[in-house]
Amino acid sequence: MGSFSIWHWLIVLVIVLLVFGTKKLKNIGSDLGGAVKGFKEGVKDDPSKLNESADSGRTIDVEVKDKHQS
């Protein structure tokens, strides 16, 4: 009762195909693939674009004051 055999997995696959249908499973797979591709492109941003957006030419000068002055 510890592990499932190949026959258990085949029966589960057949039940999933009957419940969802092949077209819906294909759509879910393509949506998941598009999401993974978008995530990879987002992680692999161009470093030169990041530097341009971070350095917009403005400098903000801030003076910090201590709250606990004696």
Write out key terms for the chains shown.
elongated, mainly alpha
Description of the structure:
- With 70 residues, the chain is mainly α.
- 64% of the residues lie in helices and 0% in strands.
- The chain has 3 helices and no strands.
- The longest helix is centred in the middle third of the chain and has 22 residues, at 22-43.
- The chain is elongated, with a radius of gyration of 27 Å.
Q: What about the largest sheet? A: none
Radius of gyration: 27 Å
What does the average pLDDT come to?
A: 78
Poorly predicted segments: none
Strand content: under 5%
Number of strands: 0
Distance between the termini: 72 Å
Q: What general form does the structure show?
A: elongated
Q: What's the helical proportion of residues?
A: 55-70%
Individual helix count: 3
Order of helices and strands: HHH
Structural class category: mainly alpha
In short, what is this structure?
With 70 residues, this protein is mainly α. Helix content is 64%, strand content 0%. The protein is built from three helices and no strands.
Give the helices and strands, then pairings.
Layout: H1 6-20, H2 22-43, H3 47-54
